[in-house]
Amino acid sequence: MIARAAIGNPWIFSRLDRVDVPVDLLRRTMLDHLSRMLSFYGPQRGLVLFRKYAARYLSPYRLEGPIRQALMTSSRQADFLAILDQVLHTMPIPNNPELSLYPTGSFPDNQAAF
Asked: How far is the C-alpha of 100 from the C-alpha of 8, rounded, in Å?
């Protein structure tokens, strides 16, 4: 089923392997999706509904229990974005735990999208 495979992996249609998606593209896609959910459903419901998509976007990466729980139970957009930024800064690239996703200082400001 293509529709289910596309949840959290919209790059499937461009035939890009999920682990080859650059983290900046992942982040931009997540922020765009979140922004649209917040606009359509409102700030609280939009964030709650988006959390299941966030789990799918981040599924190739190993998230430790406390971090995953904090991200998936965030009730405020600012908290969610702060935790997401922390996750993207520190988690290893799939299939290559030696590499960090973002070199120090190259991560864009999370306020730019909102």
From this structure: 21
pTM of the model: 0.73
CA gap 33, 39 in Å, rounded: 10
Q: Could you give the C-alpha distances from 102 to 35, 71, 82, 91, 106, in angstroms and in order?
A: 23, 19, 15, 9, 6
Distance from C-alpha of 70 to C-alpha of 78, rounded to nearest angstrom: 13
Q: pLDDT tens across 18-30, in order?
A: 778 888 888 999 9
DSSP secondary structure code for residue 14 in this structure: G
Other beta carbons within 10 angstroms of residue 38's beta carbon come to 18
Task: Return d(Cα 82, Cα 74) in angstroms, integer.
Answer: 10
Q: Which residue(s) pair with 100 in the sheet?
A: 92
